[in-house]
Amino acid sequence: MNPVILWLIGIFVVLLGWYLSSTAGRLDRLHRKIDISRLALDAQLLRRSSVALELSSSGILDPATSILLADAAHRARTASDVDDAARSRAESNLTAALDAALEYPDDVAEVRSDPAGAELLDELDAAIRRVELSRRFLNDAVRACRQVRGQRAARWFWLAGRAALPLSWEMDDTPPKGLGPR
Amino acid sequence: MKVGIVCPYSWDAPGGVRSHVADLALALMGHGHEVSVLAPVDDGIDLPDWVVNGGRPVAVPYNGSVARVNFGFGATRSVRRWIQEGDFDVLHVHEPVAPGLSMLACWVARGPMVATWHSSHARSRILSAGYYIAQTAMEKLSGRIAVSEQARRTLVGHLGGDAVLIPNGVRVAEYSTGPLLDLVDPTRPSIMFLGRVDEPRKGFAVLLSALPAIVEAVPDLQVIVVGPGDLDELRSALDPGLASHIEFLGRVSDEVKASALRCVDVYVAPHTGGESFGIVLIEAMASGTAVVASDIPAFRQVLEEGVSGALFESENPQALAAEVIRVLADPALRTEFEVQGWRRVQEFDWDVVVDDVIAVYESVTVGGEKVTTDLRGQIVGRLGGRST
């Protein structure tokens, strides 16, 4: 065969190899980032539900609200062992319960008048804020990863290996209205 | 928490990103965190012990002005060494798409990484190409912060996804207390300009062409001009009648700048664009000075569409003159702007803002994973087949 053609084929193969290897590296990095973001979100969700549980058992809220909140927080915690869909439903329910408990600024002010209540509210506010952030960062990473996996080269050459297609984490994480704007 | 912060612009030269990094570092240390800042430095003297010398910067044009940044193999090595020695819980890079130390840090590091976008620019083909090249590095960032809506739009337009909006902070106390400047005569009405006089987007030319009209209405006006630039050339080109009203201070320290801001009646910001966040407006408001600014998007947002300061049509000297004359002539209006400005500025105090930054750090760090160096994506790493 013509040596020029051989050279061209050689260069093409090298370039293709480099491209595939760099895309595989990118995907590996993205998957890793998603794993870390999932763990971070997990930690923040647990933090949120434990503060909610603490608030419900503090005796600061009225008994009815306490029971509602304790139930939602407990379900959110136990749902972490089931599947993701059940868990995100339970976490959204906890968001709704928190909103019901802390819907009105007057109620929140009453909780805040108790020193222990003020501390719990600050902790809860911090946890809610971090859940929002972690979820946003996770979904960002998922979107970037799915975009790369959708590329032709990634599909044809199975660059993602056996890694499952990552899913974004959908849940309601709106902060309770009574906590006020940030 | 151990935080490593990378500033891409020279530590010796005053600038928005550099002061942001310094203030953030101090505020983080005030909250009990350990901070190390890597920044380009011209001469290594007088560095605070939390700043690490990232090498001597080189002047290159970037984003419509001249940036002094570091690049090349030597710079990459010093970034890698800093990361290895730092043992950081989180790495926070600033302006990661400006060619410089921040971009290099994204390239050589892995682990919990956060980036802050400062500047805004319209989408351009060449920048898109740049973003494509930098994409591999960008994809390692777990958390993205923008300092303004404009900066956020720039980032989203180029990279997709989203970013958390955390505005610049100001150390309000430093602007609201301290000595006054005797250069400013308190009995005369005074206005002030801040910024490079020869950089078109700072708008000094707009102010100059508005001055004759303002002086006509306010004959004993005093104009304080703070900022570097070729002052001799400017002075010789000025009409002597006008020049007698202007006091050029040149480049001054942050303390003198704060004193000057406190002394004057009105701070004028004639910027024509390229400004993603009105930090100077916040500083003026923290000094208790009324602000008159051009109606570019960033300023409109900071001034709440004219509630906490007056706005005029950008690049229009007549509009500038009319607005300055109106505010100078009406002490009640000035007081109103001072009061509203002071209220507005509390939202930007670093002590408040830093909590949001810490929230971002905590939402990307998990299980004690540290920032380490990463050779993947670089030829050595690919040949070795693993990361170190």
From TrEMBL, chain A:
The keyword Transmembrane applies. Gene3D superfamilies: LemA-like domain. Keywords: Membrane, Transmembrane, Transmembrane helix. The chain crosses the membrane at residues 6-24. This is Unannotated protein. It comes from freshwater metagenome.
UniProtKB/TrEMBL annotation, chain B:
This is Unannotated protein. Coiled coil: none annotated. Transmembrane segments: none annotated. SUPFAM superfamilies: UDP-Glycosyltransferase/glycogen phosphorylase. GO terms for molecular function: glycosyltransferase activity. Residues 14-172 form the Glycosyltransferase subfamily 4-like N-terminal domain. The lineage of its organism: unclassified sequences, metagenomes, ecological metagenomes.
